[in-house]
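Worked Example 4.2. Consider the chain below.
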Amino acid sequence: MTTCHRARRSIIAVAALSATAFAVPQDVVLAGKDAPGRTEAAAAFESTPIGFASVNALGTNGTTGGAGGPTVTVTTGAALADYVGRKGPYVIRLSGRVQVDDMLTVVADKSILGVGSTAEITGGGLQLGSTTRPGNNVIIRNITFTDASDDSISVTNKAHHVWIDHNDLSNGFDGLLDIKRESDFVTVSWNHFHDHSKTTLLGHSDTYTADIGKLRVTYHHNFFDGTAQRHPRVRFADPVHVFNNYYRDNALYGVASTENAGVLVEGNYFQNVAYPIYVGYDKSGPGRVVERGNRYVGSGVPQTAGTVVEPRTYYPYTLDAVDSVPSIVQSGSGVGKVGL
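Applying the procedure from the previous section yields the following structure tokens:
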């Protein structure tokens, strides 16, 4: 049995790992048949985020969304647009299918929570923040996103401390979930991505160097189900932590690290993915990737390069046993699992 010290660290240290090492950090717990950890049920019902959204930074101690503010229930696009744009904290419960025509701007201190298993935003999406109204400290959970006219969710304009959890995203126009333009401290967890190509971009463009030193994102327990690419595609960010995700039948590639980004890919299950990890992609220059403890079934050989800052210098986390990832993720990801 593996044990660890779970105390949250208040000082961020800089540490690097070897691209070829397979050492398990001291404050990482291995879960599974040989090392008791979180059960499937417990893992799928986290009440607070794991990963970068949990970090005390930039004057914000973790991600709490609209906690402490009024709770409202919305059933129309007009009501949703009204409340996500209001000043101050709100817990916004989304009930039923809501049609919107464009991207709605979400400002700081909001929880947008789907009710039951039928909450849906269709025709448009959510943009976290504008250039004048930041979208910091936002939680989006338990919502189905379909047929967006642009991105389904866009985390942008320096938004920080964002938790995107247990959603179902498909059939968008551009990206299902893009994180860019100096956003930071984000966790993307337990989402089901399907029926789309450009899944989740991290970093605006090859020339947007203002993203250097930002874009710290954790992706865990997501189901990339037949989506073609960008799981994620990363520019400049360091570190990015990709763990315990299930990749299945991804036609172009799994993860791509470009433009000197630093990505740790660990404990993921790649099934029928010819190119699970790229170092550099298309016209973008190479990034850095460390991979450890992944499973490649019917898949190609991952590319790796360089060293990456160890995410454990920011937060503790639990790894589920890699061979259990397909069943855990399929049973726990998507909507209707968190009892909202």
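The radius of gyration is 18 Å. The chain has a mean pLDDT of 89. Compare this with Example 4.1 before moving on.
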